[in-house]
Amino acid sequence: MTGARQAGGDRSRDRRRALWFWVFVGPFAAGTALFTYVPLLWSAGLSFFDARNTVTPTDFVGLDNYTAVLTDDAFLDSLGTFALFTAFIVPATYALSLALALMVNRVRRAQAFFRSVFFLPAACSYVVAALIWKMSLFSGVRFGLANTVLGWFGADPVPWLATTHPPWYWLVIVTVRLWLQAGFYMVLFLAGLQRIDPVLYEAAAVDGARPGWQVLRTITLPQLRATSVAVVLLLVINAFQAFDEFYNLLSDARGYPPYARPPLVYLYYTALGQGQNLGVGSAGAVVLALVIAVVTVGQARWLRLGRSDADG
Amino acid sequence: MDDALVRVGRALRLALLIALALLFLVPFYLLVRNGLASEQDITSPEWTLFPSEVRWENVRELFQDTSVPFARSLLNSALIAVATTLGTVVLASLAGYGLARIPYRHADKVFYAILGTLMVPAAVTFVPSFVLVSSLGWISTLRGLVVPTLFSAFACFVFRQYFLGFPRELEDAAQVDGLGHWRTYWLVVVPNARPVLAAVAAIVFIGAWNSFLWPLVIGQDRSAWTVQVALSSFTTSQVIRLHELFVAAAVSILPLLAVFLCFQRWIVAGVERSGID
Lengths: 312, 277
Prior knowledge:
The structure holds 2 protein chains of 2 kinds.
Chain A (H helix, E strand, L loop, with lengths): L1 H45 L17 H7 L2 H34 L4 H9 L6 H12 L7 H8 L16 H26 L3 H9 L6 H11 L1 H16 L3 H7 L12 H10 L5 H27 L8
Helix pairs in contact in A: 1-13, 2-13, 3-7, 3-10, 3-12, 4-7, 5-7, 5-11, 7-10, 7-11, 10-13, 12-13
Chain B lengths: L2 H33 L3 H5 L13 H8 L5 H32 L5 H10 L5 H14 L6 H5 L6 H12 L3 H9 L4 H12 L1 H17 L2 H6 L8 H9 L6 H33 L3
Helix pairs in contact in B: 1-14, 3-14, 4-8, 4-11, 4-13, 8-11, 9-10, 11-14, 13-14
């Protein structure tokens, strides 16, 4: 008797808790379902239809859209552009933000000032930064700052964004992002550095390790391993999503040039450009989802291979 | 250890830091220099550190120029950023609290379903989201610009982690006083969670103000342009008036610099806590 009544009480308490759970979590969960999962499924569906200028197509085409995307040179080029961009931006940001963190961490005077200055660009939008780079810093005309500095040394002005031989536009694209995000990752590294137990450094000093490279290599970098893994993963995912600076640096009144189109720029012009080919665009999005999943998982495996993180 | 050597090393490091700090400030300098200069000063072949005369009237000209709806786009950005920030903080903190504190059989499954959306990059969702928003008829509306961006898995994750470490005693005391979950949350939890609320609010506000791809895709009519879309239309247009362009860019980052400098402590704490931007 008592047992049954208790079970009944448990059940009604469980039901009350479930109700409260959904009062708190429900709105958010419903929004996530509606604005992330529904579009994903819808788009996966669209990728099997001829969906030009329509979101409710009726013409089933099987895998044709996938064949179209995978044999489209522009799509393959966009993956190549992503790979090249990643090869520049990931090591550059990693090295600069780590170097900034190491220096800011050791500096005795005005530490907060230096941290603020390097972190400040994080408040700037890619649009504004691209505008400064394109119209002033790396403006192709003589009055651009870079060309002015070159002029002091007697060099001719360089048309930074308008030339593909040599492809100077890569320098412009990479430095924008480097400036914008280095301070953000510096903050992550600083947090990692402050978690390192000072006892380790004392022990190293007792063992006769020379300060500088040796301590960096044997203590600091291994201790920063978890932070480094997170930073590299974030850098690659963010490089994959690059759109703003490419669009604002390279496109002008005549449109976007045919080169240097990363995946998101390709998708933008395929799905939302003149043709509004949402079928091919959706197929492209699905392929990109698989690419990013493989890259992320592969990278996580590779970076963590045989190691256990102290401070995951 | 050689004392002199250490001191030289320290001085070198400080010098390098100062040089890098100056280099990092150059873009801000260019923004101010060009924004307050005349067209002739900007295009002059001789570089001058500051414009020959400071032209505050550039600001007035910018707002009087009818070819670009700059005032309207500033207003749109402000409305969108405020609505997105409020909506995200309320929805995500409620969800984070529920996931952390209300025992429910399927809570883990719900949490992983939400967390999973963190792994889905914008490259994958922007075409499908556009499809959904356009079939709802939300193109070029404030709704379309705000509502789909409110469900930030990042914010929900940060709140859940925070509430997991929140001292239970406060809530227990509230329960003893007969408060239910709802009133406990608003009367006890929220007032004690101000640092994390401020951190997430500041990060979301900056992200909303600076976001570009979504407003570009959804805010197609000039009346729905955000400030970033308006600036972008400046740089890609036929005729470019340089001083106007730079003063517009400078005006567009002023609100953000204010938020950034006021909330820096919380933003840094938030970034450290999450590692996700």
